[in-house]
Design a protein that fits this description.
The protein is an alpha+beta fold. The protein has 6 helices and 13 strands. The chain has 2 domains: 243 residues, Aminopeptidase, CATH 3.40.630; 32 residues, no CATH class. The chain is globular and about 85 Å long.
Length: 296
């Protein structure tokens, strides 16, 4: 069985690929699952600049050797603010042409929470992965919140710490560390978008779990034409998930219109932020209404 598949990553260089596996990884399509994952090895810091958040970079803190994660396909479990922070930490953008710092390559614009909410509501499959906050590096703002929670936990003493360590992972007491979604016409085709994993937990198989869960849920609905996009950096990951080049050799073309020099009849296309506006042609001044006096 041959399945066309792919995933959309924030990059202008996109390649359409396909997947030659029909099983989807054998993951059940239930709405939640608790499992343990382990790190095979402690990887070195791939990014020499610790202040940079280039996609695929790692923090100095290594991931734990083994940790529990919570896998959910219920969109109501997702906190939009945490999802926005995950976009930022992964240097990911929902826009095809994001505003990027030319020196660092970091996406400068924050995600619009209202548009993010709309995108989730129109996604046919949403997969989210959670783990305990102490297992993932957090931002300065999140660290302040976590320190306040730690002070509260210290007042509980040893028993409180023990209970906290044995408490099962749930979306209410955990942090969002992985995400992926798919949109579909629910009959013929589907597309995978925004597959992300927190940089400090990459390499532990979380991304593979997300992709295979999405594919499993789509194929269980008899949808096998799963289109997608990926950057050249992401090709290695998706090949490990069973993806291959499209046998038709097709590539994805994004609609983009040139500005200032593009004319539509008597109108000109001009840019206003990210939007393109169709501006009417400048009106020529009226001819003088004064009439010359007749010669005598």
């Amino acid at each position: 069985m041959m399945v066309v598949a792919a995933a959309t990553i924030s990059s202008t260089s996109c390649i359409q690929i396909m997947m030659i596996q029909g099983s989807g990884g054998g993951y059940p399509s239930k709405s939640m699952e608790l499992r343990w994952i382990s790190s095979r090895s402690r990887r070195k810091n791939l990014n020499p600049n610790p202040n940079s958040r280039v996609l695929g970079s790692l923090k100095s803190k290594p991931p734990p050797l083994m940790m529990p994660i919570y896998i959910s396909t219920d969109p109501s479990h997702i906190n939009l603010q945490q999802l926005s922070e995950l976009y930022s930490s992964c240097n990911h953008s929902g826009h095809r042409f994001p505003e990027v710092d030319p020196n660092t390559g970091i996406v400068e614009e924050a995600m619009d929470l209202d548009k993010l909410r709309i995108a989730l509501s129109h996604s046919c499959v949403v997969v989210s992965v959670f783990c305990k906050p102490q297992h993932v590096d957090v931002t300065k703002t999140a660290k302040q919140i976590q320190n306040q929670e730690n002070q509260k936990q210290m007042s509980k003493g040893f028993v409180g710490d023990l209970m906290e360590s044995v408490m099962p992972v749930t979306p209410s007491n955990a942090k969002l560390v992985g995400f992926g979604r798919a949109v579909s016409d629910l009959g013929l085709t589907a597309s995978i978008y925004d597959v992300m994993v927190s940089p400090s937990l990459q390499g532990m198989g979380i991304g593979t779990i997300i992709v295979k869960r999405i594919v499993r849920m789509l194929t269980s609905s008899d949808i096998y034409d799963i289109a997608a996009l990926c950057s050249r950096k992401e090709r290695f990951f998706f090949k490990a998930c069973g993806f291959r080049d499209d046998i038709l050799g097709s590539t994805t073309m994004m609609y983009t219109r040139t500005i200032s020099t593009s004319f539509e009849r008597d109108q000109m296309v001009t840019r206003a932020g990210r939007k393109l506006l169709l501006a009417p042609k400048l009106r020529e001044p009226f001819a003088s209404s004064k009439t010359s006096k007749p010669e005598s």
